[in-house]
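Dear colleague,

Following up on Tuesday's group meeting, I ran the structure prediction for the three-component complex that the binding team flagged. I've pasted the input sequences exactly as they went in, so you can double-check that nothing got truncated or mislabelled along the way. The structure tokens for the whole assembly follow below. Feel free to forward this to whoever is handling the docking comparison.

Inputs:
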Amino acid sequence: MTVSIVVNGKQHDIESSPDTPLLYVLRGELELNGAKYGCGLGQCGACTVHINGTAVFSCLTPVGAVGDRPVRTLEGLGTVDAPGVVQKAFQDEQAAQCGYCIAGMIMRAQSLLDKNPKPTDEEIRTHMQPNLCRCGTHVRILRAVRRASDELVKQG
Amino acid sequence: MNPRKRLLWAGAAAICAVGALGLGIAAWVVYEPEIPKIPRPAASSFSADQIKRGEQLATVGDCIVCHTKDNGPPFAGSRALPTPFGTLYSNNITPDEETGIGNWSAEAFRRAVKEGIGRDGSHLYPALPYEHFIKVNDDDLDAIYAFLMSREPVSEVAPENQLLPGLGIRQSLAGWKLLFLHGGHSEEDTTKSAEWNRGKYLVDGLAHCGACHTPRNLLGAEKWGNEFGGGIAEGWNAPPLNASNPSAARWNVDALTEYLTTGTSAAHSTAAGPMGPVSEGLLRLNSKDVHAIATYIDDIMHAGRPDRPQLQNVDVDNSKTSSMQSATADLFQGACAGCHEPKSPMALRGRPLLSATSDLNADDPRNSIQAVLQGIQAPVGSNAPYMPPFADNLTDSQVSALLGYARFRFTTKAPWPDLEKTVREIRKENQQ
Amino acid sequence: MNHQITRRSFLAAGGVAVAFSITRPALAQLAGGGEGGPGPAIIAANLPGSLKSSPFLDSWIQIDDQGSATVYTGKAELGQGIRTALTQVAAEELDIKPADLHLVTVDTLRTPDEGLTAGSHSMQDSGTAIRNAAANVRMLLLQQASTRLGLPVADLDTNGQGSITAKDGRSISYGEIARTLDLHVEAIANAPLRQTAEFRTMGQNLPRVDIPAKTTGGAAFIHDMRLPGMLHARVLRGPSEGTHLQLPPAHEIEAMAGVAKFVQNGGFAAILAEKEWDAIRAMRILQSLPYDIAPRPFPNGPASETLKALPARDIVILDTSNAVANPVRSVKHSYSRHWISHGSIGPSCAVAWLKDDLLTIWTHSQGTYDVRRVAAELLNRPIEKIRAIHAEGAGCYGQNGADDVAAEAALLAMAMPGRPVRLQWMREQEFGWEPLGPGMVTQVEAALDDTNRIVRWNYEVWSNPHNNRPVGAGGVLIGNEVVPPFEAPEGKPIPMPEGDGSRNSNPLYDLPNMNVIYHFIKDMPIRVSALRSLGAHLNVFSIESTFDELASAANIDPLVLRLNHMADERARGVMQAAADKFGWQERKKSKPLHGFGMAFARYKNLGAYCAIFMEISVDRDTGMIAVERVNAATDCGEVVSPNGIINQVEGAILQSLSWCVHEAARNDGKVRTSFDWSAYPILRFIEVPRRIDVAVIEQPGKPFLGVAECGQGPASAALANALADATGVRFTHMPLTPEKVRRAIVTN
């Protein structure tokens, strides 16, 4: 039984079994690097992607459950040559040390800014809470989100 | 923390009450005198022991939860308390003289807490559970007063209550109180231990467990004669604490104590929804008082029967005998099994099995649905397990399929009827 | 600027390669901060940095005929930004654009062996080597240009664009010269270096070269490797060190859905599958089987109880005595921290491939050359038939599961010739099996005379070895599990001045009487190895807390007490700089449970200097600490990437705060009980300080000092000092959890 999902605007017929968490389908079949395995338990956010524009843990979303709801990953926000606003903000703030958590952070931040382009500092902190960073890049990440917000507001 | 939703039908009831009793009596019951302001007492006028005692008692009363807004200064109020009749905002109970209770005497404080009357004589809405606090003795209230007065004053004015038109008349609360506010605290039961009595005193009074765990009547008051029969708070069922609790056979004093102090019990599941902040508070309470509370609750749950059967351990897993739809089994594997498969690393480390959870076994799927949609937050300061929310990655149909699967696999109970419809309704309720 | 060449010159035609290595004695050196094995042999002791062990220029730099440079380092990018920093160093000293330079990180086939990437040594070892090698190359390029153009070297200059220009307007590109330039020559020790005033790249904030891929989904991590025919592997282990799954017979496992192969050797077992989820699914089923628990002591009490119950060997670290005035005030405390998990966000991973008789292992271990040695011993395979290449993992902060996983992948690859094998641990496996940062305890007694001079200082520290990095098969889990097993080597202390449990137990302060004893405990009931800063975390915590206690007893300002006992100018410099930026003199408490604290250390008394100042307030009801602001100052010698330094120090502060307030990896006497992020909470966004400012003290011309670990000790200490200031309570046993703090202040 094949499952079909839409990722970053493109339809894919998936060979993996329907119980396979979306994370492994993205990384394995679709060869996308953004979402990462951190815990598989919904505790760290390294696997964060968007379903219907909302941040979710792809490690706990079986691919068979996605249906026709659009999936967006880090790769869907922009490219190395044309990064999206949030990606560029993270680059400009040099908001990464090892960088393993950063894809999840960007997706998490993007889902906030998509709904509320002018969050307060408190709102940003609370919103980012489900995502873990072990290297201690938090201050830069918060600055990057703020920077992206400022840019989005400027763009109107 | 989620605001406490209480079913306050006070306005409608009060109007009826006033109408029934006539204006003359109404005038008599409505009017309460103002208690004069006093200069704010110095924190040093209270002994350290009394303040410490007051802190512990305030912890039992969980004052901080209702009297603090999200990320706001503690006890400074302004928390929105939604009711079906509109939104109330809690008062500032820091010792600020302009906006808090800085100029309240101990007498004014006691009257407010026990009788629901402000210093200026105005009636307070029974969002403040004074029908419980009336049972607290004056000595304890004075200690809580001392604790509050020893804190930093914070200037914070609560927003205007936004009640539906016609229900904003405080005087009408007098009638409600006439019907439902019954004075005095109960006498000691000499046939029971000192610990049991202490537990009863705390539970009936400050801890106001019945405020959530007792069903309410149409007038918004706890049902007389059905104490601890189960209630609802903020969209979660507060299970019965009396013998009608279907899991009563699996609780004892130790299990209750563990649950109350750590927020989790390996045999039962984790404090979720509005019980989370309660256990977060109780983990700061001294162990003697927690044990007393557990002792009393345990006794109610078993209707005082000392000869009840042994604590049963449940470990149901129908997976081998099941003919469950493999699509749902797949869903469970991908979304839930990492933590919830029996013998998963989670389960091996003393986390509750799904078959042990009261919620999965309950007739009402509400709590199970809420756990899946909202997840379970770990209280600050504890290592209790955390469950992520699934509202955004699973549809109503998937949530209902998963819960049906879990119910079938991990319990011996009949399936919940109309489960998907219930999921849809509760999801909509959460979004309001 | 002296361009005079004091040694041999090299003519283009027939370049003379001079081999010196045969005649020099090989000396062991402590590379990588003394961790790991003896490190690469020294064959040119007069050369700076790792040139000592790899003196030939072409080991480090090659230039192609387009003028692009390939630079080799024996160090690894761990997320600390070293790839970018070394790129800057090389580009600067070669005087080319960073974009024209490609840096190859440690690969046993291609790069020098510089030992471990650890101990904050990368800039000292590799940065220095590369800088000097590049200077040598630039010197040779100029010499060649001089010959080609027939002009004296003094008339020539490099232009930063990959060419050499002459005063008369002629130029020649590096590419042209490279065609005939032989770099297989040894470096000279004093090749002229570019000066700070002319810097084009060093000292600038070059954007990290790895961040673009990491923010846009490029393949940036070892976890992203995809090789043709790659199999996914999962190990089958019990939930914790000391456990062993009761597995069914092999044929039953082989028959499981999705399992391509089952590999077992003694106590080691793993499955391989074509699809990753198939491997995980099967692993989950097998992981749920009953397990045996090895009967072994697995103490679960406080660190002090556990450590003091074990036999120790006493090592005197310091014993100085001078005549002093009588002590009039004394303080005495015991300090401790519990075992701590590395907590890498990405569990450990390795890829291995046996192809055409060469076994290649990709690893994120800090000891890539050691991974090769371990595999050689484990597999009884000639070392030249093994290649180990570093590929980035998640931050490791020491020895996490990386080495274990690398060895496991190697064995599995041997079982599947021709097919790459990707092995990754699960989260609970990383928590359950990786070596932890050792718990430690100290005891300090110190006294002041009536002029507030510290006249007595008695210090004891108890610790396990921190340096259990595998150099042979006995150092990895699989080595102990296979049949016949390799014995785990005995833990040994790292001698001072680097130290391990003793690291930073020797105060940098000028104290007339110091008695410092290291109780070295070689029995390790809990599996441990190096964690960022080793013993410095607790030792600096203890020393700096004691200084504040003394200041409090003497009723003098904590900064003043420190300055009164510190002659080292650079130390005074960072303390003063951070104090000024913080506004330490103007500090004023504005509410209850509001406080200020400071701390200082020079990492290992040899490395980077760091001073940290903090303002905090404590929530009375929850015991949670809100860090309002942090000002840090760091002096790490010549600055390569200011932003890189700031990033590292910010990170150290946040990580150290998390260790200090939250972290303790626990067990119940049988198994580890911290197995996921719920059971081992770490700092999250809500607790992040409102502001962190890091001032970088510029020290042009001074040797590089690695900055990665210098903040760990001072950050925890500054927090404890601020907490004492805010609450009046001295907290000494980490973690200083909210509940611990709350209970202490409620009873106040």
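The domain at 222-293+342-433 of chain C is CATH 3.30.365.10 (Aldehyde Oxidoreductase; domain 4).

Cheers,
M.
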